[in-house]
Amino acid sequence: MATNEQRLRVAVLGAGLIGIDLADKIRRSKKLGLALVAGRDRDSLGLRRAADMGHPTTDGGIHAVSEGGPFDVVFDATNADSHAEHWAALQPTGTTLIDLTPTGLGTVVVPGVSSHRAAAHRHLNLVSCGGQAAIPVLHAIAQRCTPTYIEVVSTGASASAGRATRLNLDQYIATTSAAIRAFTATPDAKVMVNLSPARPAPPFRVAMTVLTENIRPAPVRTSIATAAQTVRAYTPGFKVTSLAVAPGRISVAVEVTASGGRLPRHAGNVDIINAAAVLLAEQPAATSR
Description:
Order of helices and strands: EHEHEHEHEEEHEHHEEHEEH
CATH superfamily of the largest domain: NAD(P)-binding Rossmann-like Domain
Mean pLDDT: 93
CATH architecture of the largest domain: 3-Layer(aba) Sandwich
Number of strands: 12
Number of helices: 9
Number of domains: 2
Low-confidence stretches: 285-289
CATH topology of the largest domain: Rossmann fold
Shape: globular
């Protein structure tokens, strides 16, 4: 366990687009020390890039992480189908596992909404990139009214969606829908995902429609603005691009552009979930035993 003077010892499991951006964000953190980037293909571009950044790498996957510990925090940036196996391997080690795959396993955490949940748990789930962008806004709306139906449409650039993301689209939709229902107490939520091949690549956008009665426009607008400000504290490229409040209906759209680091601007989907993961890892509660 790290002391206050030491950086927490962390590992990244997965060397795709998400894993390599995580490595870059951890490298810039004053509280985290990246001890290992683990992939499964020694010739992968991700492992080569991690090595070029000066990080220890391995193609041994979860077995190398299990044997190379103990780690204060491990980030799982692989795929939903493998995550249960990863948690089973790491649970006995006492590490905190932050899951960036859409498994729906573990304690669901969205910074600014449920960060307090991290204190008592070592298996944390970040829903999805769309969930991280939408839930702070939807939760804010639900504090001011009682939604009966929520629809969320996420649109991202094809170039910002790796192989694991594409394989996990069904889990992404199911996990994000469940989290929205849980955080808003809404009985019906529908999630859709679009991957756009347009050039130039579009930024990550999330459009939300909320059906509800007894809307008070001014408090709703204030709550959404406050939620957006909270998210911008750790994801500066987050902004509300449109907001319409009408009788029985609230329509809001947000856009996330990546800022700083190695990500292209259109990869806001990667930026927001990775920023949330690093923020949680930096909190002392994330490594409490």
